[in-house]
Amino acid sequence: MFINGMGIVFAGGSGIEKFEGALAGPWVAPNSHNEAGLPSYQADLAGAGRQDLLKKIRRADKMSKMAVVAAADAAEDAGLENLAAHRVGVILSTAHGPHVTTFKFLDGIYDYGEEEVSPITFSNSVHNSTCSYIAQTMDIQGPTLTVTQFFHSFYNALSLASLWLADDRVDYALVGGVEQYGDVLSWIVDQKLTTAKDGMIKPFNLTPTPQVPGEGAAFFLVSKTAMGKAYCQVDDIFLGWDADRAIKADIRVIDSDGMAPDESAYLACGSSGVPMAAYSPLFGSMMSGSAFNMAAAALTLKHQRVYPNPVADNPHNLPLLPKDFGVDINRMSCLRFDCRGEAMGAHLSRA
Amino acid sequence: MPENSDRELAEIRRKIKEILVEGLSLEHWTPEEIKDDEILFGQGLDLDSLDAAEIAVLIQRNFNFIVGDPEQTREAFYSISTLAEYIYQNTQGQD
Lengths: 351, 95
What we know:
The structure holds 2 protein chains of 2 kinds.
Chain A: E1 2-10, E2 13-14, H1 16-24, E3 32-33, E4 39-40, H2 51-56, H3 62-78, E5 88-93, H4 99-112, H5 119-125, H6 129-138, E6 144-147, H7 153-166, E7 172-179, H8 183-192, E8 216-223, E9 232-239, E10 251-254, E11 276-277, H9 280-283, H10 290-303, E12 331-337, E13 343-350
Helix pairs in contact in A: 3-6, 4-5
Chain B: H1 2-23, H2 49-63, H3 80-91
Helix pairs in contact in B: 1-2, 1-3
């Protein structure tokens, strides 16, 4: 399976160029703080392109709008046009779904009663509504599915995309991850996890990693064969990880971002000596943040360019990716541990 | 009395425009840009059936009366002005 196109919306802007610029640049502090002073990375769609597309889905919530922009960008990046004429499927991963809209709907019941609750808010609170918006705006005729498995939502979605392609159910799949920031989520993770009061996620602290909620969408246009400007190949998607049996990779990208109270499972990744990178400080803590880290790996493989760790605090002396990493980068490993220490991830190689 | 009703209708139209822009996420419109005789569905604001359901809820919330069967209120939902007339007629006598 090949990654042929990517689209990204995050706190740093919209588009692959913006994301690559963030990867190449220094760490940037969170762009928002709520009334309680809690930091977050929030996407601003006003500056995004695709305003015509957004006009078509004016009633959609922010989660759907971010996903639509990222999915459309991924298809365009791959050069895939007239999607109605192709067998395209959509698989969206999200850990928390449209929770902001769902809480708004519930607030409506409390405030106005069942008879005066907003029909638009209800329709947007339906879990698969984001996929529907993507299919509607891009005229996609194939299957759509929303996958939620908290920490492993994205890799499960990617695995499913691989199956759909292998089964010849579709010729192309738009697979991605999306999360929306909400004050309720911010409050919950602040209560349950360790918030980075200074706004800086330190992904190699691990015991614990301080978190800063993020939001955004990262989409990939994948297919069985490489199209013109494929980023990389997805060799396999794995469940379970063992340092002794791990496939040798040139760089390992870990998804540590503080969304689990203890991320010490990542410490085992350091034993092999494979240089480690983590980019969550650029886009924030998200259970579907795996999609953003995989996008960074895909860019690394395609451009043969090393993106240094934006935050390199290293209390456990892990083998971090050096800025002057000079060898050819042929194979990368991306992985995420959940709160029970179970891993899921993907191996990528040059296209 | 007619002057009073004209003033009340103008105020209702102004309020409707604000409510629709906010409640229907008409991000590419401002209330001031919407004409009094702007058609709501098919042309003008180009709204659809889900918007109609939302408008009914918005009216109930903001003007404190239950909107009847949409089939019976089809004429009222034609334009901003007809909607204002409908609301005016149904709010007479309210505090």
